[in-house]
C-alpha cells in the first residue's frame, strides 16, 4: 500500500453497470480526486505513474456482508487484516456484521470500528444489531446507531426469530430509511443440521438442514415487509424456492432485496463427501444441491438477486481442525470472490461484465443508501482495477486474512483484482 494522493493511472478500460469503454484512458488524481481523464497523459514531476496495460477499471467494489470479528475475536480476524483481505480481493468497501463481543448494539461500538478503520484503504461500514446483545428480546436504539454511522440492522449469525420483534424492527427501520438484513433460518426446523438435508447427508449420516428452514423465514419476512412497508434484505440466499419467493415479492412491489455468496453459486453439498468431511466446506446456510446452485445463477441473471457478497467468516485453525459436527460454520471469501465469479458467471456467459459489476459496485451501495463511486472529473478516486482473462492458482500465500478457512486453496481462479485506489491510497496486488 502506498499513500498516493497525486498519481497517474495509465491505460485502463473503464466499465460500469451499463457500458464498457471501447478506448483505453489515463486518469490523473490530485489530492485523492480525479482531475483529468484522457489519453497519452504525461506524469508530472510529483506524480507516480502506473501502467495497467489495458486492464478494466470500475468503481470500487463493495462486499455488504462480512465478519471482521473485532472487537472480541481478534484471534480470528482484526479490522486491519480483514481490510487487507478485502483490498487483495478488489474491494474498497465492506459492511461488517454485528456478531462481535461486545456486539455492535450501541453507538460506541459503531464509532470504535469506524475509528479503527479510518487510516485503512477500505471503507468499513458497521451494521448495527436489531436486538440488544443479539438475543432477540428487545430492540436496540436504532436512531442512535444510525447517528454513530451504522448503515443497516441485523442479528446475523442468528435470525431475528421473534415475529413481533421483526415487525417492530421493520417499522422503526422504515422511519430511518434503513434495511433490516435477516439471516433467514427457522431454528426449530434447521437444528441440529450440519449440512444440507438431502441424499448426501443421508448417505453420510449427518443431520441435515432442510431448504424449508430458510424458505419459511423468507416468506415470513416478505409478508412483514408488505405489512410494514419496511425494507427486508435477505442475507446469503441459497435455495431455489427462496429465490422464487423473492422474485414473486418483487413483482408485487414489496420492498425486498437479496444477496448471494460465490460458494452458493459454485459448490454443492457433494463437496463434503468428495473432500472427506473437510470442515472448510461447512457454512450456514450450507452448500446445497446442484439445482440450487443453478437457481442462484438464474436469480443473478434475471435481477432477482441484487448483490454478490462473501459472508467472509474467519475462524482460527484450531477451531476448524475438529470433527465435522463440532466445527463452526463459515469460510473466508474476500480473496476468492472475483476469481470464482468470473469462472462461474462470465466464462459461462450467464452474466455480462457490466451486469456483474452492478452486483459488486452499484447495488450493494444502493441497498445501504450509500453513494456509488463515479469515474468522472471532480469525484473522489475510488476504484478497482482488474482483469477477467488471467488464470492463476489460489494458494495459501494469497490469503491476507488472519484465518485460512477456505475450500479454495489449490483452486484455479479466472480473473484477478490487480489494484484498488481509495482514500488517497493505492494498493497494488502482487501474486
How many separate helices?
Answer: 13
Q: Helical residue percent?
A: 25-40%
Q: What does the radius of gyration come to?
A: 21 Å
Instruction: Return the CATH class of the largest domain.
Output: Alpha Beta
Shape verdict: globular
Architecture of the largest domain in CATH?
Answer: Alpha-Beta Barrel
Strand proportion: 15-25%
On the 0-100 scale, what is the average pLDDT?
A: 98
Number of domains: 2
Which homologous superfamily in CATH is the superfamily of the largest domain? Metal-dependent hydrolases
What is the spatial order of strands in the main beta sheet?
A: 1-17-16-15-5-2-3-4
Q: Tally of extended strands?
A: 17
Q: State the CATH topology of the largest domain.
A: TIM Barrel
* Unreliable segments of 5+ consecutive residues: none
**Helix/strand/pairing class, anyone?**
alpha/beta
Explain this structure to me?
This protein has helices at residues 79-89, 107-117, 142-148, 163-175, 187-190, 199-204, 211-228, 240-251, 270-274, 290-302, 317-320, 337-346, 353-367; strands at residues 2-3, 7-14, 25-30, 33-38, 48-59, 61-66, 91-96, 123-126, 180-182, 195-196, 208-209, 232-234, 256-260, 307-308, 383-394, 411-422, 425-428. It is α/β, with parallel strands linked by helices and 431 residues long. It has two domains: 2-57 and 377-428, Urease, subunit C, domain 1 (Roll); 61-367, TIM Barrel. It has an eight-stranded mixed beta sheet with strand order 1-17-16-15-5-2-3-4. Strand 10 (195-196), helix 6 (199-204) and strand 11 (208-209) form a beta-alpha-beta unit. The longest helix has 18 residues, at 211-228. The mean pLDDT is 98.
